[in-house]
Amino acid sequence: NQAFIKEMFLNSDTDMAVLTFTPTTYDDMPLTQEEAAATKELTEALEGTHRLLVHGRVVPNLPGDVERMPELAEKWQIAAWKTYTQADPAGQTGWWLDDEEHGAKLIAMARKTGVRTICIHKGLPLPTPFMTKTNRKYGGCGDVGKAARQNPDINFVIYHSGYDLQHRDGPFAPGTHELGIDSLVQSLIDNGVKPNANVYAELGTTWRYLMRDPTEAAHALGKLFRYVGENNVLWGTDSIWYGSPQDQIQAFRTFQISAELQEKHGYPAITPELRAKVFGLNALKPYGLDAAEIRRTFLGDGMDRAKANARDRNDPTFLTYGPQTRREFFALLKAGG
Length: 337
Hints:
The protein is of the alpha/beta class. It has helices spanning 2-10, 33-44, 65-76, 103-113, 144-150, 181-190, 206-210, 214-228, 239-242, 246-254, 259-265, 272-279, 291-298, 302-313, 326-335; strands at residues 17-19, 52-57, 80-84, 117-121, 155-159, 199-202, 233-234. The protein has 15 helices and seven strands. The chain has a seven-stranded parallel beta sheet with strand order 1-2-3-4-5-6-7.
């Protein structure tokens, strides 16, 4: 808990974060709901600061998960649901947001609990045995547009924006896109879901890969800004795996889409206003937060003072806790880590 708070809040410019979960069975969760709540309580011990939001994990093709949602919502004060359409204990199948057996039941229960933001892992591979080549296709976003159109009162936050490691992003070309960011864009177009509606694109791990290639990053972010909306792209780092997100923050602060690509593909310039939206302001709406209240409570609180003291010491570790190379990442997946 203390290492997470140190790397996330003290060793980076992060002011507020979301703690989420992996798609194991309920009994095998490496981070339990109780442990997540304890981490939240540790941050709030600094003079009542509310800087950490917590998800409730639900995978509707696991027995009992949907039925457990009301208890999670009431007991743990969760901010949103986190789910995985690729997940299957046997690694054989997955499910879709727009299917009646699993997706519709999850959405209906979310509505019943009053927690109407659902965060869906799309794109990046899951560790075995929960995902194999057989159910990789469920990481595509073809189901997102239909679910969003049918449920306009639900916020759908697409974690990783559907980004696929085996697909290099370029300009969007209309057609059949089974995987990747283009599958998200195509799904929204096909279902008439306009930019800045009820679908959000999250950048965790996605930006960490994109920031190595400015051209691919320009196309990926440009497409998200154009089709998902400049108000609906959300910052994310997945830094529960990687340690301090400061390198990702600094890279995004300086990143720009070239004037040539802006003109050719209709991408926006990344202005200071747009950066501020992505870094946090865009997340206020789906999480039901108020910017003025956040500024008032954060100013001069215990965490603010701790961050100031950390800057004075100037000794951040910047450790990388997860895999540091592509080979190490896939070795972790193979081992089921």
